């Protein structure tokens, strides 16, 4: 359609993408074979059939299991480049990608192996597509503060290649307050800060992310809409929300795309963006997220232009580079 063509032609930044969540079943099988790793699925179709989630934890259990096929620097390069190829095809010109080092170091894969492979993939994507990217190191919030500090220490030699830190995994029961000290340490090292909040957790967790983690960007943030004063604060301060429509529906945080609040967010003056989260698990890359939201919610070309513009304004690119993309 006309809208689909318009979306395809819009240059975009992707600001909420877990690189481990871009592991397509085909690559999972190829890496399992290459590394001699057993996987509990007989076929690609069987893997896709298992991707039927009732909530975030359902998904996380399968997502962490899938990551077990990732073993070598080459694997992380291949994973990242496969994502960048898909992103470039959707008009993504800049991506700020999350990685979860603890998912790998807990299995005996060295931090350096993970980050070197990802950096190789990022360099390849820039050479191949002109697509620029940054890395955001996420702490797994179901693990301890002490483990987060140990991960930050492992990142020390790589700090000039890491744009910021994030907070992901099981939200409810692991409020931002648990990581206030590690985020303060990260800030002291010059790192930007983002956090998943208000995906499944209550508006109070968004308040904590703002006041205790001093976040530069809010990942998801959907449940902020339940708190009018919080919504007004996010709008007034120009906080970027990295919204993930297909993720919200797949994880049953939004009943269907027909009732997704992306348009309500824009009407309330929030700097919302559209992103893919874990595209291999949730049924589509960034273009599909734009298309699904646009068709279900009747987004106009002006709305879509605003969403893409917000993605650059909310990025961690220097002001001159943001301006060059607007
Ligand atoms: C995630 Cl959708 C989502 N929420 C929280 N943590 C995550 N890690 C990967 N995807
Ligand atoms: Zn996420």
Automatic annotation (TrEMBL):
Catalysed conversion reaction: adenine + H2O + H(+) = hypoxanthine + NH4(+)
Residues the entry annotates as binding substrate: 278
Domain Adenosine deaminase: 11-326
Residues annotated as site: Important for catalytic activity: 220
Keyword presence, Zinc: yes
E.C. number(s) listed in UniProt: 3.5.4.2
Positions of Zn(2+) binding: 16, 18, 196, 277
Alphabetical UniProt keywords: Hydrolase, Metal-binding, Nucleotide metabolism, Zinc
Active-site positions on this chain: 199 (proton donor)
One GO MF term attached to the UniProt entry: hydrolase activity
Classification via Pfam families: A_deaminase
Cofactor entry: Zn(2+)
Matches recorded under InterPro entries: A_deaminase_dom, ADE, Ado/ade_deaminase, Metal_Hydrolase
Cofactor: record remark: Binds 1 zinc ion per subunit.
Entry-linked PANTHER family: ADENINE DEAMINASE (PTHR43114:SF6)
Family: Belongs to the metallo-dependent hydrolases superfamily. Adenosine and AMP deaminases family. Adenine deaminase type 2 subfamily.
Function: Catalyzes the hydrolytic deamination of adenine to hypoxanthine. Plays an important role in the purine salvage pathway and in nitrogen catabolism.
NCBIfam families referenced in this protein's UniProt entry, alphabetically: aden_deam, PRK09358.1-6
Protein name as it appears in the record: Adenine deaminase
Native source species: Sphingomonas donggukensis
